[in-house]
Amino acid sequence: MLHELVGAGEEEDLDAGVKRIAVLEKDLGVQLFSRTARGARLTIDGQAFLPYARALLQAEERAAASVRPGRRALRVDVIGRRLSLAGLLRDFHRAYPETDLDVVTLFDSDTAIAAVRSGTIDATFRAVTMPGRQLPGGIEATPVFDEPLHLFTGPAHEFAAARAIAPAQLAGRRIWMPGNMPGTEWAAYYDELAAAFGLTIDSVGPNFGIEPLLDTIANSSTLATFVSEQTPLVWPAGHDLRRIPLHDPTPVYPHSLIWRTDNPHPALIALRDHLTSAYPGRPHSGIWTPNWSATG
User: Fold this and answer.
1) pLDDT tens-digit map of 157-176
2) CB count, 10 Å around CB of 168?
3) Domain for residue 223, yes or no?
4) What CATH number is attached to the domain comprising 61?
5) How many structural domains comprise the chain?
6) In b/e form, how buried is each residue of 175-191, taking b as 16+ CB within 10 angstroms?
7) Nearest to 239 by CA among 179, 156, 149
8) Which of 256, 255, 271 is CA-nearest to residue 73?
9) Which of 48, 107, 256, 282 is the most buried (most CB within 10 A)?
10) Residue 68: predicted pLDDT
């Protein structure tokens, strides 16, 4: 009914919507138009009501556009807003500032891929594919970023003074990662890393988040954890924490962009092109990735 009111107020003629406007007038208990043989004009009440009606219609259009594929913002899933993938999206937005971008965080790969299939999101960043799982039909993935791992220790740890270490030097050591949840792609990654180099991934929690983990690592001479090279971390100066690169080989976490092949969103192609053009390709030697990691 508001559509008819706005149109009639602008065009000053009666049309098929006049009956619906009459229903609106009855509901409001006021006359919005004065009707004559020549047409209709807004009454004082109609003039007062019209700006609010316009605002409601504009809000309706914005609400519809926010969820309508092809018109809403490009909706991309990242595992965490503080991780490197969010940085990739910030770089994309700087390159394409006119593109509306909606960043969401879904926890696990199954949920994210289901959201891609349904069109709820346009793309997700994940490590693909986990052991025993394949991407559904109509879903594609391409590698976009291989992120090196660092060992993260406190100042009293045995490797705290090392400039770099080899993964084989961690054999028999315990790596504490309370955020590793069974069934997730990152848990599968670290399980295979542990098996490949003889180390132990300790996921005993509870997981209180990154700040308590940093506090614990800083005060321990035996605990260490893994962090990705571009994960931004800030800690109190007194913690004196150390990030130690891993080499010979360098374990890299394989991030891929996943999307539905028939997704019509016009900005999705720009995102794919931006990410793949910046991806140098995976080296043939010197790195370690799981056997199940897609190479494109």
Assistant:
1) 999 999 999 999 999 999 99
2) 12
3) yes
4) 1.10.10.10
5) 3
6) bbbbbbeeebbbbbbbb
7) 156
8) 271
9) 256
10) 59
